[in-house]
Design a protein that fits this description.
Structural class: alpha+beta
Helix content: 25-40%
Radius of gyration: 20 Å
Low-confidence stretches: 1-5
Number of strands: 9
Strand content: 15-25%
Strand order of the largest sheet: 2-8-5-6
Mean pLDDT: 83
Shape: globular
């Protein structure tokens, strides 16, 4: 047993008792926890933004209406699966449903939304056009107060390497590996746009450019801007 204690003394680290709460706690060294405390201080939880997040369409209810050949026009809704989603973009829908068989969609206001997979080794969030929805292997994020700038802002932060690392490190513990748990995602803090309008505006413009040009050439810029938004270079 002595060799184990020796290893702990050499590689272990102290954790303040205040870090061990009855809600959530992390066994991480102080330099890692400083990142956690910083993002908690700078951002507000997604749950406090004017958004609603729901599970995608449960297709079994509409099995007899599913069409697997590509359809065009406003009368059809394309369905994507979680496995079709990568960062920013998704594969073409593999299934189509008549819009009028789903009242909740039939009465929708034709606005863009964010769709992301429930299970993914690497998180990926996409901007979905009004005629695209996700199946039950996805979550759908919609804005209560619709603003495309907010959608672009969210997409930039949520698709960043910084978000992926922080979410996996601090918010995704327990459960099934690679699962994006909704309650955990809602706790992730995102800085208000008005807190740093210049940096946030740059994120929005780059993400807008990604979609206009169909290119991921500037995603590293978004990664860098996200780190700046969380003020990780600030010593305070």
């Amino acid at each position: 047993m002595s060799y184990r204690w020796s290893a702990i003394r050499q590689k272990g680290y102290y954790i303040p008792s205040s870090q061990l709460t009855d809600k959530m706690w992390h066994l991480e060294p102080s330099e890692v926890m400083s990142v956690y405390y910083k993002i908690q201080k700078v951002g507000i939880p997604i749950a406090q933004w004017p958004v609603r997040i729901k599970t995608g369409i449960r297709l079994r209810k509409y099995a007899s209406e599913i069409v697997t050949t590509s359809q065009e026009g406003t009368e059809w809704v394309g369905i994507i699966k979680g496995r079709d989603i990568q960062k920013y973009f998704h594969k073409q829908p593999s299934m189509w449903l008549p819009r009028n068989v789903m009242p909740a969609i039939s009465n929708s206001d034709n606005k863009y939304r964010i769709i992301f997979s429930k299970m993914n080794a690497k998180t990926g969030f996409v901007l979905a056009e009004p005629h695209i929805y996700g199946d039950e292997t996805t979550y759908i994020l919609e804005l209560v107060d619709y603003d495309e700038e907010v959608l672009y802002y969210f997409l930039g932060i949520l698709n960043s390497e910084f978000f992926d690392w922080c979410f996996r490190k601090f918010y995704a513990g327990g459960g099934i590996e690679s699962e994006v748990k909704l309650y955990a995602l809602k706790q992730f803090p995102i800085p208000k746009i008005d807190t740093n309008r210049i940096l946030a505006g740059n994120v929005i413009e780059i993400v807008r450019s990604i979609y206009e040009n169909g290119s991921l050439g500037y995603i590293k810029d978004v990664d860098n801007l996200t780190v700046e938004l969380y003020a990780l270079g600030d010593k305070s």
